[in-house]
């Protein structure tokens, strides 16, 4: 096998390791670093992604990584508010209630008058 064949095999192995790194990093929201490290470092990069990378949101109470769509922290059982489409770490500020206008207040009080 010539040098072109060896380079082709090395490139194919790097490509396969990149794809495997993508899938290993996906549950931890680290697809791109997984692919890059898998492609450049091979099996060592895949191990690094499997052990070190975790870019998921953290529980505000105990800092445990939580999955998208979780409503309760799996570690401390804290209830997580879903305010922005599935991101529990970002809380939506409470909107202040607008005071009633004079006409609305009169209409509301008129309902409770004794006839």
| Mass-distribution shape | elongated
Residue share in helix: 40-55%
Tally of alpha and pi helices: 4
Number of E strands: 0
Order of helices and strands: HHHH
Assess the beta-strand content as a share of residues: under 5%
How would you characterize the largest beta sheet?
none
> What gap, in angstroms, lies between the N and C termini?
102 Å
Low-confidence stretches: none
Structural class: mainly alpha
Radius of gyration: 27 Å
Task: Give the rounded overall mean pLDDT.
Answer: 80
Count of the separate structural domains: 2
Characterize the structure shown.
By secondary structure, this protein is mostly helical. It folds into two domains: 1-55; 56-92, no CATH class. The chain is 46% helix and 0% strand. The protein contains four helices and no strands. Helix 1 runs antiparallel to helix 2 and helix 1 (3-25) runs parallel beside helix 3 (43-51). The mean pLDDT is 80.
Summarize the structure.
The chain is an all-alpha fold. The chain contains four helices and no strands. The model has no long low-confidence stretch (mean pLDDT 80).
Question: Could you name the key traits of this structure?
Answer:
single chain; 115 residues; mainly alpha; 4 helices; 46% helix; elongated
